[in-house]
Design a protein that fits this description.
With 262 residues, this protein is of the alpha+beta class. The protein has a single domain, classed as Creatine Amidinohydrolase (Alpha-Beta Complex), CATH 3.90.230.10. The chain is built from five helices and 15 strands. The chain has a five-stranded antiparallel β-sheet with strand order 8-7-9-14-15. Strands 1, 2, 4 and 5 form a four-stranded antiparallel β-sheet that branches. α3 packs antiparallel against α4. Bound molecules: 2-amino-4-trifluoromethylsulfanyl-butyric acid and cobalt (II) ion (CO). Cobalt (II) ion binds next to loops.
C-alpha cells in the first residue's frame, strides 16, 4: 500500500480520535505516582477509551495483550502492563497509547517522571520531547521525509544522547501502521516528498547511554542493552503547506502550545 493522502473528512475523524487520545493521556498523567501498577494504568486507559466511544488499537494487535504500553526506565517501548510491576520514586515511565474512532487511528506516547528523578533523567525526557519538535520543523509539504529523521538525530546526538535504530515511526490512518516508515536517524537519500494530507506518527525513542537494544523473551518488551534509561515521545501529525498540525492533542492546540506544555 502506498502513502495515502487523507480527505478533509478523514482528517476531521483523525482529529476527533486524537482529541480523545489526548484526554486519555492527560488523565493518565494525573494518576502517575509511586505505588501504582502498570496494570492499573492500562485498566484506566481501556475504560476511558471505551467510555469515549473508541476502540483501543493496541489490544490484540499482533497478539499484544493490553491497551497501553508501559515502558519503565531501561524499557524503550512495548512494556506489557502487569499487576506485579509498580512504579517507584525515581523511575521514568513511557506511556504509549492508540485509539480508533469511526475507523481512524491516532497514536501518541509521552514519558513522565515518577516522583523525584535525576537531572540526567529529566534531561533525557526533555531532549526526547524536544527532538520531536525539532524534527517536525521539517514536516512540511515540499520537504523530504528524511529531513525530519536527520533533524531528530542531530538534535539528540549533539546533546549526548542516542537514537534507537530498530524501531521507527509510521504513516497512520485507517491502519495504525501505514507507509512510510519514519526513522529517527539519517538515511541514504531524501525519502518521499511530503504532501498536504499525509498523516504521520513521528516517535523518537531516545537512550541515555548506548543506542543498542535487546528484545525480551516476552516477544514485546524492548530494553536498552546497557540498562540505561530510555524515553519515548510520539504524536500523530498532519502535513500541510505550512506548519504541521498535531492530530493527537486536544483539538486547537498549536505546535507551540504543545511544545511548551508541562
Ligand atoms: N505506538 C506503537 C507503534 O507506533 C505501539 C504499537 S505496538 C502494540 O508502533 F502492539 F502495542 F500495538
Ligand atoms: Co506509533
Amino acid at each position: 500500500m502506498a502513502v495515502t493522502i487523507k480527505s478533509k473528512h478523514e482528517i476531521q475523524l483523525m482529529r476527533e480520535a486524537g482529541n480523545i487520545l489526548a484526554t486519555v493521556h492527560e488523565e493518565l498523567a494525573k494518576i502517575i505516582e509511586p505505588g501504582i501498577s502498570s496494570y492499573e494504568l492500562d485498566r484506566h486507559a481501556f475504560e476511558m477509551i471505551k467510555k469515549f466511544g473508541c476502540e483501543p488499537s493496541f489490544l490484540n494487535y499482533e497478539g499484544y495483550p493490553a491497551s497501553l504500553c508501559v515502558s519503565i526506565n531501561d524499557e524503550v517501548v512495548h512494556g506489557i502492563p502487569s499487576k506485579k510491576r509498580k512504579l517507584h520514586d525515581g523511575d521514568i515511565v513511557s506511556l504509549d497509547c492508540g485509539v480508533i474512532f469511526k475507523g481512524y487511528h491516532s497514536d501518541a506516547a509521552r514519558t513522565y517522571a515518577v516522583g523525584n528523578i535525576s537531572d540526567r533523567a529529566k534531561e533525557l525526557i526533555d531532549v526526547t520531547k524536544n527532538s520531536f519538535f525539532e524534527g517536525i520543523k521539517y514536516a512540511k509539504a515540499g520537504n523530504h521525509l528524511y529531513d525530519i529523521s536527520k533533524a531528530i538525530q542531530k538534535y539528540v546526538e549533539e546533546r549526548g544522547f542516542t537514537v534507537v535504530r530498530e524501531l521507527v515511526g509510521h504513516g497512520i490512518g485507517t491502519h495504525m501502521h501505514e507507509e512510510p516508515q519514519i526513522p529517527n536517524f539519517k538515511q541514504i537519500g531524501r525519502g518521499i516528498k511530503l504532501k498536504p494530507g499525509m498523516t504521520l506518527a513521528i516517535e523518537p525513542m531516545i537512550n541515555a547511554g548506548e543506542k543498542d537494544v535487546w528484545f525480551l523473551d516476552d516477544d514485546w518488551t524492548v530494553v536498552t542493552r546497557d540498562g540505561e534509561y530510555s524515553a519515548h515521545y510520539e504524536n500523530t501529525v498532519l502535513i500541510t503547506e505550512g506548519e504541521p498540525e498535531l492530530l493527537s492533542v486536544k483539538t486547537g492546540t498549536t505546535v507551540e502550545q504543545e511544545m511548551n506544555r508541562r
